[in-house]
Design a protein that fits this description.
Distance between the termini of chain A: 44 Å
Shape of chain C: globular
CATH superfamily of the largest domain in chain A: P-loop containing nucleotide triphosphate hydrolases
CATH topology of the largest domain in chain A: Rossmann fold
Distance between the termini of chain C: 25 Å
Number of strands of chain C: 0
Number of strands of chain A: 13
Structural class of chain A: alpha/beta
CATH topology of chain C: ABC transporter involved in vitamin B12 uptake, BtuC
Low-confidence stretches of chain A: none
CATH architecture of chain C: Orthogonal Bundle
CATH architecture of the largest domain in chain A: 3-Layer(aba) Sandwich
Number of helices of chain C: 14
Oligomer: heterotrimer
Order of helices and strands of chain C: HHHHHHHHHHHHHH
Strand content of chain C: under 5%
Largest interface: B-C, 51 and 51 residues
Radius of gyration of chain A: 19 Å
Chain lengths: 262, 359, 335
């Protein structure tokens, strides 16, 4: 699989949000996009997964521009979990997860044995089997997020995009979701691209980190390469110590002050 | 007599302003006095025009005579006394009432769509009035007004219940939808009754918003209601400003939100009920005017309410004059004229909200 | 999902039985009571001339029209609520009722001739008006390079319908009282005065459109989710919304042109259906259609019998039933 963007420009009205973005997503890895609020990281994520169409430029998946392809065909290869998705009242987890099979169905879309197997598998991997008959609004925040992830993986795609999948969850659920994603990456070879805020979680779970400032890539590479005091200063405008976490041997960021604004 | 009362209101406005002046010294504080003065002059000017023009144009000389040295043998003076003068007053009262209640509603619900017509309060008042027309056809005007109040109260109560149950006053869309549904509901029932009792076209006439057939006696009767509604509104102005900052902020600033909501609903009720009883549910004044006024004088309701009052009066006077001139000697319903101004405005407002929502 | 399917089967059975029962009851009830035995005798070719006239001409036509109009309006309401992602959205905001109403008013204003229109003049006019208003709303709500926003759709619906209502006022106070009453009766909604041709045209129309909608129930499911999720699942938002809205408008326009602007059916039946079988359109669409048919047929029965020998207008009965239920929805809705 080859996935990259080429000279992408995006603007809202007259404001240019993203300029001349050239980003390559490594196959089979967890890529995390970081950046300050309003840096354009969510916008980039949306453009990469075709929710937003850029003013200029292309996003290429295996030699073909995704914006000119049928969105249904792409849905077999790319799954998306946006920020705080909403569901109609009364929809059960299993029904929701069954929607994940729709890219493979034409018209009425009666589920066959293979679909049912995939649905059961998605529920099992995310640990949602016992909640299959519950309505989404009856679940806790963490369970609900697992249900949405189950929807995305029942879609059976090689690439998974997630926009801040851990926001609004408490720390135990955050860890839980990230471990689930890491498991999907390692055991099922899914390429994952996401936006996360917590730098220490980025350090622990990301194989590839892309730092964005004002719509441009400031630096990218492994967590060790990107999460340095110098880069944090440049990207977030904070002064931070970076030490090595004794347990995971990954970098640990400890911000201690803002850079005084000029 | 009425000029005195007009003065009295102005005095109230000024008093309220001086009471609050210590709290704000921003750049716009002079502008709003200018606005107030300009609006007042416009109001006087339009009142004169409103007395003059119509199916028959009448000289200023005859107007002065009609008002102060009435001679009932002169037809032009009779027209002034029985038709033009009352409808001018009615336009002022009704315009002021609708726009002040719109301003209060937008302030307390923090919802740019809030206004008597969009939230279905007009339809409720209309429903009450339909009941009155049907079941007490010979009833006194007082009775009719009471019914219209009760109808307005009913829809206000529904809105209030719905919005406070949800505890989310920042959902413009939901309130607007609830309002449309309430309007549909009351209209359906009123219409049903009207068809059943064979007075549907009467009701339509009244629904179209008419101040053309108004009599002085009606105005005399309803003036105390309007005045008391406006007085409550003026006293609530500061609280409305506080509440417009949000429920939590209001509590933090020591506002008694329950009390504020109660009194502002009361003001809305009285103003809308009496205005609908005079003129029928004229739409869009309560939506358009507060927005325009806030754009001029800022978010402080101690300024918005007085300016809104005058601006509403000016707008409805203007609409009434236009409605007479579109297709003389026939009168176009004034509600249709305000809708012609209001609908494009509403569309613009929706576009603006959209932009803000994206950020 | 077994749970949902079981509920679906129960609901389906229950409603079908009710529809059949009310249908037979409606056939037997009226100024000239007919027993069930009479009905079957007449159906299978027996019966006197007057009996045949009563059964086939008076009763059967209006019952069938109520049935079809109810199903159509209800499905159209379901689509609108799904596209606008709001279960409180009244399908009246599609502009169909308002547009049809205004065009019929204008027709009566300019057509000063004798009392009755040709049987297809009115439906044709109201359809044209309905489509024009719907297109206006859609054009105002959609923007270049953006997916049609549900919120804008609702807001523009509110704006345009209130604009049209004020135009209504200008026209309606110029009508003569008889003209006015005739238009008003139509606007409130009544299934009386149609012919077999109307029934057949409406039936064909529904048989053409409803299967398309049911067949694409899954696409409708996706459109109800957040934009990002729907795109991720391969839904073409722009085309999907436009296509479903067009289908909803075509359904509603046909129903309104035959039955008048009956409100509340399209608002409450979809809601009730979702309450019974959940929001999955594969289940809720058929239930909603049947509920609409049941509601209008029962309302018609009530309208004919409650103050017999006089008749209430169908639309009034629906409003009197629908309004309280809607209030209940409002007061219990969580969001």
């Amino acid at each position: 699989m080859e996935f990259y963007s080429q000279n992408v420009d995006i603007s809202y009205g007259k404001n240019k949000i993203v300029e001349d973005l050239n980003l390559r997503i490594p196959e089979g890895r967890v890529t995390v996009i970081i950046g300050a609020n309003g840096s354009g990281k969510s916008t980039i994520l949306k453009a990469l997964c075709r929710i937003l169409h850029p003013d200029r430029g292309e996003v290429i998946l295996d030699g073909k521009n995704i914006y000119t392809q049928s969105t249904k065909e792409l849905a077999k290869r790319i799954a998306i979990l946006p920020q705080s998705p909403e569901s109609p009242e009364g929809l059960t987890v299993e029904e929701l997860v069954s929607y994940g099979r729709s890219p493979y169905k034409a018209g009425y879309g009666k589920l066959d044995a293979q679909d049912k197997e995939k649905i059961a598998w998605a529920l099992r991997v995310t640990g949602m089997t016992e909640f299959a008959d519950r309505a989404l609004e009856q679940l806790s925040g963490g369970q609900r997020q697992r249900a949405w992830i189950a929807l995305c993986i029942s879609q059976d795609t090689e690439i998974l995009f997630l926009d801040e999948p851990t926001t609004f969850l408490d720390i135990a659920y955050q860890l839980d979701i990230l471990k689930l994603l890491s498991d999907l990456n390692q055991n099922y070879k899914k390429t994952i691209v996401m936006v996360i805020h917590d730098l220490n979680q980025v350090a622990r779970f990301a194989d590839h980190v892309v730092a964005i400032k004002k719509g441009k890539i400031t630096c990218e590479g492994s967590a060790e390469e990107v999460l340095t005091p110098e880069n944090l200063k440049q990207v977030f405008g904070v002064l931070a110590d970076v030490v090595v976490d004794q347990r995971s041997k990954r970098p640990l960021c400890i911000p201690y002050d803002n850079i005084p604004s000029l | 007599m009425t000029a005195e009362k007009e003065d009295y209101i102005l005095w109230l406005v000024l008093a309220n302003f001086y009471m609050g002046i210590t709290m704000n010294t921003n750049r716009k504080s002079h502008l709003w006095m200018v606005c107030l003065a300009v609006l007042f002059l416009l109001l006087l000017l339009l009142s004169c025009i409103s007395m003059q023009v119509g199916a028959k144009n009448i000289s200023p000389d005859a107007i002065v005579k009609a008002l102060f040295f009435y001679d009932s043998s002169k037809s032009s003076q009779v027209i002034i006394r029985t038709s033009r003068f009352p409808r001018t007053l009615a336009a002022i009262m009704v315009g002021a009432s609708f726009s002040v209640s719109g301003a209060i509603m937008q302030g307390t619900t923090r919802n740019p769509m809030a206004s008597p017509s969009i939230l279905g309060i007009n339809a409720g008042a209309g429903f009450g009035l339909a009941l009155a027309l049907i079941f007490f056809p010979a009833a006194s005007l007082n009775m009719t007004v009471l019914c219209s109040f009760l109808g307005a109260a009913l829809s206000t109560a529904i809105i209030f219940l719905v919005s406070s149950f949800g505890r989310s006053n920042s959902q413009p869309l939901k309130l607007a939808l609830v309002g449309t549904a309430i309007t549909a509901m009351f209209n359906a029932v009123s219409q049903a009754l009207a068809v059943g009792f064979k007075l549907s076209q009467d009701l339509t006439f009244w629904n179209a918003g008419g101040i053309s057939g108004i009599r002085l006696a009606q105005i005399r009767l309803l003036f105390p209601y309007t005045l008391s509604g406006l007085i409550i509104a003026f006293f609530m102005a500061r609280s409305v400003t506080i509440l417009s900052l949000g429920e939590e902020v209001a509590v933090g600033l020591g506002g008694k939100t329950r009390q504020i909501r109660f009194f502002s609903s009361l003001a809305v009720l009285i103003l809308t009920g009496s205005a609908v009883a005079i003129a029928g549910p004229i739409g869009f004044i309560g939506l358009v005017v507060p927005h325009a006024v806030r754009a001029l004088v800022g978010m402080d309701y101690r300024k918005v309410i007085p300016c809104g009052m005058l601006a509403g009066a000016v707008l409805l006077l203007l609409a009434d004059i236009v409605s007479r001139l579109i297709h003389p000697p026939f009168e176009t319903p004034v509600g249709a004229v305000t809708a012609l101004i209001g609908v494009p405005f509403f569309i613009g407002l929706a576009n603006k909200n959209r932009k803000r929502g994206e950020k | 999902m077994e749970n949902q399917n079981r509920r679906f089967r129960t609901a389906l059975l229950l409603i079908l039985v009710l529809i059949l029962a009310i249908f037979l009851l409606s056939l037997t009830t009226g100024l000239t009571p007919l027993s069930l035995k009479d009905i079957f005798r007449i159906l299978f070719g027996g019966g006197k001339r007057e009996e045949k006239l009563i059964l086939f001409h008076y009763r059967m036509i209006r019952i069938l029209v109520a049935l079809l109009v109810g199903a159509g309006l209800s499905v159209s309401g379901m689509i609108f609520q799904t596209i606008s992602k709001n279960s409180l959205a009244s399908p009246d905001l599609l502009g169909v009722s308002a547009g049809a109403g205004l065009s019929v008013l204008l027709l009566s204003y300019f057509y000063k001739g004798s009392s009755a229109f040709g049987i297809f003049v009115l439906p044709l006019f109201s359809t044209v008006g309905a489509l024009a208003a719907a297109i206006l709303i859609y054009t105002l709500a959609s923007r270049k390079d953006q997916y049609l926003s549900p919120i804008r759709l609702i807001l523009m619906g509110i704006a345009v319908s209130s604009g049209i209502h004020s135009l209504d006022m200008i026209v309606s106070i110029r009508l003569s009282p008889e003209q006015y009453n005739r238009v008003n009766t139509w606007m409130i909604g009544s299934v009386f005065g149609n012919t077999w041709t109307h029934v057949l045209v409406l039936l064909l129309w529904l048989m053409l459109i409803l299967p398309i909608i049911f067949y694409h129930a899954m696409d409708l499911n996706l459109l109800r989710l957040s934009d990002g999720i729907a795109i991720g699942l391969g839904s073409d938002l722009k085309r999907g919304r436009l296509a479903f809205l067009a289908l909803a408008v075509m359904l509603a326009a046909a129903c309104v042109s035959v039955g008048g602007t009956i409100s509340f059916v399209g608002l409450i039946c979809p809601h009730l259906a979702r309450k019974m079988v959940g929001p999955n359109h594969k289940l809720s669409l058929p239930i909603s259609a049947l509920l609409g048919a049941l509601l209008l047929m029962s309302a018609d029965l009530i309208a004919r019998t409650i103050i017999a020998p006089r008749e209430l207008l169908l639309g009034i009965v629906v409003s009197l039933v629908g309004a309280p239920y809607f209030l209940y929805i409002l007061l219990t809705s969580k969001k």
